[in-house]
Amino acid sequence: MMVITSSRLAAVRYYHECKRYIEEKGYNDIGVLVAFSGSVNDGGEEYTEPKLNVRKDGSHIGESQTKAEFHENFNVLIVAEKYQTGFDEPLLHTMIVDKKLRGVKAVQTLSRLNRTCQGKTDTFVLDFINKQEDIQDAFQPFYQETMLEREVNTDLLYQVQKELRGYSIYSDADIEAFSGEYFSYGRQDSRSMGRMTSILKPVADRYNKLTPDERYQFRRLCRNMIKWYGYISQVVRMFDTDLHKEYVFLSYLLGLIPPETTTMIDLEGKLQLEYYKLQKTFEGAIMLKEETGVYTPASAKGAVKPEEKQPLDEIIEKINEQYKGQFTDADKVLLTALRAKLMSDTKLQTMAKTSDPQIFAESIFPKAFGTAAQDSYMESQDTYTTLFEDQAKYNAIMHALGSIVYREMRAASRV
User: Fold this and answer.
1) From CA 375, how far away is CA 333, in angstroms rounded?
2) Residue 104 has what pLDDT?
3) Contact yes or no for 405/364 (Cβ under 8 A)
4) Which end of the chain is more exposed for a tag (fewer CB within 10 A), N or C?
């Protein structure tokens, strides 16, 4: 049996509840596994898939072993996203669904049951969330011949790639170093994983220096890149080796960079369930029509970012995170002039195109910024006096301008 949950946290709680029920009833022939990526914090305790999955002899089950263990020794698998697609288990007979399924994801998820094996004569789905009409609409386009509504737009991948590179979190050198380990001949071992992690660590450090909003947007773009590449590469033959390397690189990076932590609201003792009604809304076969379906592929809609801030607003926001002094309208004029002067520096442009973001920020940009600031001071001493009188302001403006200028120069070089 497979249980489909709405989140990793829900999967963990389902797991604990199943274990409690099995022990309470004294069942000795039912084994439960859970499958999810990363870690989950619940009640102050951190859970991972290998930590929860334990054999009868007390040994823990690695993530790469979960599929085989479920086939051989366990009866129930509780999943959150993981194994909803591409999971080939002929013995799977029953599925309990406790999350909303839409479109092709509904087809992929429920189709985990359609593998055949000796003695398997039927399947069973218990769905607490989705309506019969929704599942019928999801399956109908794929019932007979299915055509794409429009041409698959591979440019989506390159658009997202350009947006990701704009954050200056990683470079081609980072991807090549990681790929050299990942695609190396021979079996990967713990040392290989350690080397790959050490390559990703500086990238994760640069990610952690972004604002919370920038980190959120970067993770969202990473997920889009991985999702779209996985889809498009199945329906279109692509020969972009560099893009495939970046896809693998981002897949591992996304598992390394932590999502923003959220504070769970404690509802203990604050809510009381007074009435709950469990009602069967449908039972039976969902019949499909004899007609050709049309499937709409991914579009640019998901890649559209929220309204972007103006460069000056973004620079001021970064400065305010570090500088607690008084920031005047005259300082805004100073910022605009400094940014324009730095952006016109052709030597700095060349170095931005070929330099790692960390090297640029720590070794190259401070010197260029100092030169630009001194030249500006000679042109207008009244405007730039405060910049040299307040070291905290000088550093805050330099660091804020550094990340923006590097990002804009790199983006301009790829146009």
Assistant:
1) 16
2) 78
3) no
4) C
